[in-house]
Design brief:
With about 475 residues, the protein is α/β, with parallel strands linked by helices. About 35% of the residues lie in helices and about 10% in strands. The protein has 15 helices and 8 strands. The protein has helices at about 75-85, 115-130, 150-160, 185-195, 200-215, 220-225, 235-255, 270-280, 285-300, 310-315, 325-330, 360-365, 375-380, 385-390, 445-460, and strands at about 25-30, 40-45, 55-60, 85-90, 140-145, 165-170, 395-400, 420-425. Strands 1-2-4-3-5-6-7-8 form an 8-stranded mixed β-sheet, sandwiched between helices. Helix 1 links the parallel strand 3 and strand 4 (about 85-90). It is globular and about 75 Å long. The chain binds 2-acetamido-2-deoxy-beta-D-glucopyranose (NAG) (11 copies).
Length: about 475
């Protein structure tokens, strides 16, 4: 059975109380290439609290979030403080309050014509030009930062608009996007993450999937419902398969967001937590028993007193992450065609070929067309060789981040400190370096942020 289970690529805002009072709006062209004369209001933010004469512009590229990012939750505030930088961000068009055609009531009828990679890049280019109109910043170096999809954009901006973006720090982004063209997959990576921690726990997690099925075949679904505190009882093999897929994709997400603070789960380091709980119990279902209560809010925020697997199975992933799904999936169906759902044979997870995203259902049959790898290379310079040849570029990937599997290469080692550099961070989850420091951060992550500060100083010619 194929089950659509949607991946999330968001930097998670941890602070519920963020001061957004100083965000502003400016008129932005709906189309930068003359196909529409309309404008819309695009949200942005300029934080000059840290700015010192001669400091760089640190530009945070907005991504798929449903509201403008809270920069005080991000390490960028720390980088600005360390380098006298002007901290700025724009909200991505079609997201949050930057909607060209008003609220998105229906993905089928909304006008998506101007949600293109070139329009998104031009928004950022014109925003930097707008900031530089202030003579204080005209000669400042501009460094673009982005994570995940935003890291893809940061890389694209450095590749295609290097005259505007003097440097880029991109984290947790994929090189290869189209699952159909590209066999590497993220479940191999998560399989390694768990096997590396404990072979015993990995074997037990593997066994959990067949154990789950046994509860159904031996008529014990009522017992299962009580044991896992499920909101509704699974009735048939399809229901069990949904539960099984939520568990597999949930483990993938727990690894992706294996942060030192509670994020998609309500515990720190949720992957270690699951492994620990699995080792401490002789119950063959232990991993799943540990998983359901900590993951409940990720399947249904509104139903925290039981595990609402039925909601999680049908509606993709709600909950933590703050991703605005309509526009995000439009990008996934057009120019960010990422797939991370394939599960090959010989891992601890049940093998499953990824289902295609339901682009036709969401946007209308034939309405969306994916860019191929070849077009990305030819028209947007998005190739390993061109990224390797960039100067003033660092890409970061972390041990727990499944997206590490989607950039399985290193850049050539060169003597120049300006050469593109890949930095692998032990103990880091998805985009962890972009998140503000927290007390349980591993040393390697603290070091990575310090390395980024050294690069910002070098690229900005600061001492
Ligand atoms: C900025 O750096 C100074 C000096 O290291 C430190 O005392 C201060 O707390 C920092 N402020 C912020 C907001 O990080
Ligand atoms: C979308 O819904 C809002 C109310 O929620 C309404 O004011 C608006 O007119 C609708 N827009 C379209 C294009 O249907
Ligand atoms: C230029 O930026 C500085 C620092 O943010 C600000 O104080 C000044 O008012 C700005 N000038 C103009 C003309 O906007
Ligand atoms: C399985 O049971 C669910 C109720 O839990 C029901 O909605 C669904 O139609 C059933 N599927 C099949 C294939 O019988
Ligand atoms: C997992 O167990 C180890 C060893 O008992 C312990 O040091 C660690 O803190 C535990 N981690 C979590 C996240 O529970
Ligand atoms: C996580 O939250 C669930 C639901 O509120 C709760 O049942 C569970 O005990 C919590 N787990 C931990 C480890 O705090
Ligand atoms: C997982 O379990 C299955 C049997 O259910 C076995 O065939 C497979 O080899 C196991 N995978 C790993 C990685 O141990
Ligand atoms: C996935 O597709 C490949 C190639 O068509 C096939 O060899 C493999 O058996 C399929 N795996 C599953 C689990 O369906
Ligand atoms: C990127 O591609 C464009 C053509 O689309 C080309 O003009 C430009 O020089 C390329 N930039 C780099 C850095 O290769
Ligand atoms: C990358 O740099 C090498 C060495 O300078 C050069 O030979 C090669 O043509 C460059 N590749 C691209 C795609 O620009
Ligand atoms: C690590 C790995 O399997 N890398 C492969 C991913 O897919 C690309 C494209 O097919 C191969 O070139 C890599 O070797």
């Amino acid at each position: 059975m194929k089950l659509l289970f949607l991946a999330m690529f968001s930097n998670i805002g941890f602070s519920l109380q963020c001061d957004y009072s100083d965000t502003q709006f400016r008129e932005q062209k709906v189309d930068h290439f003359g196909k529409s004369m309309k404008t819309f209001k695009q949200q942005y933010q300029i934080i000059d609290d840290f700015y010192k004469s001669g400091g760089p512009i640190l530009f945070y590229q907005g991504a798929e979030n449903d509201r403008i990012s809270c920069l005080s939750d991000y390490s960028l505030a720390h980088y600005a403080n360390e380098t006298g930088g002007l901290l700025v961000q724009i909200e991505h068009r079609y997201f949050g309050d930057s909607l060209p055609f008003g609220p998105i009531n229906s993905t089928l009828t909304y006008n998506w014509d101007y949600l293109t990679l070139n329009n998104v890049m031009m928004d950022s280019v014109e925003f930097v030009q707008f900031i530089k109109k202030n003579s204080t910043f005209t000669n400042a170096k501009t460094i673009v930062f982005g994570g995940s999809y935003g890291g893809y954009l940061a890389t694209m901006l450095r590749l295609n608009h290097g005259g505007i973006f003097d440097g880029a720090v991109a984290t947790g982004f994929p090189l290869y996007l189209n699952g159909a063209d590209f066999p590497n997959n993220t479940y191999n990576d998560v399989n390694n993450v768990i096997q590396d921690m404990s072979k015993t726990a990995a074997d037990r997690i593997n066994g959990t999937f067949s154990e789950l099925l046994k509860y159904y075949t031996s008529g014990r679904t009522h017992e299962l419902t009580t044991k896992l505190n499920l909101c509704t009882e699974p009735r048939n093999a399809t229901d069990i398969a949904i539960l099984s897929t939520i568990f597999a994709s949930g483990l993938q997400r727990l690894s992706q967001f294996n942060f030192p603070m509670a994020a998609v789960a309500n515990v720190s380091f949720p992957i270690q937590y699951i492994v620990n709980q699995t080792l401490h119990s002789s119950d063959p279902l232990a991993a799943l028993v540990a998983f359901t209560p900590i993951y409940a809010k990720s399947v249904n925020m509104a139903q925290l007193n039981c595990f609402d697997w039925a909601a999680g199975g049908s509606a993709g992933v709600g909950g933590a992450g703050g991703v605005q799904e309509g526009p995000y999936f439009h990008m996934v169906c057009t120019y960010f065609p990422i797939s991370m759902d394939n599960t090959p044979e010989n891992t601890i997870f049940p093998a499953e070929n990824a289902s295609q995203y339901a682009c036709g259902t969401m946007f209308g049959p034939g309405k969306t067309k994916m860019l191929t790898q070849v077009v990305l290379e030819q028209e947007y310079n998005y190739s390993l060789e061109k990224i390797s040849n960039l100067t003033n570029f660092i890409g970061l990937w972390g041990q727990y981040d499944p997206l590490t599997a989607l950039f399985p290469y290193d850049f050539p080692l060169k003597s120049s400190r300006r050469a593109a550099r890949k930095i692998f961070v032990s103990g880091m989850a998805h985009t962890g370096d972009m998140i503000a420091q927290s007390p349980l951060d591993p040393d390697a992550l603290i070091q990575a942020r310090s390395t980024i500060v050294q690069y910002i100083k070098d690229w900005s010619a600061l001492s």
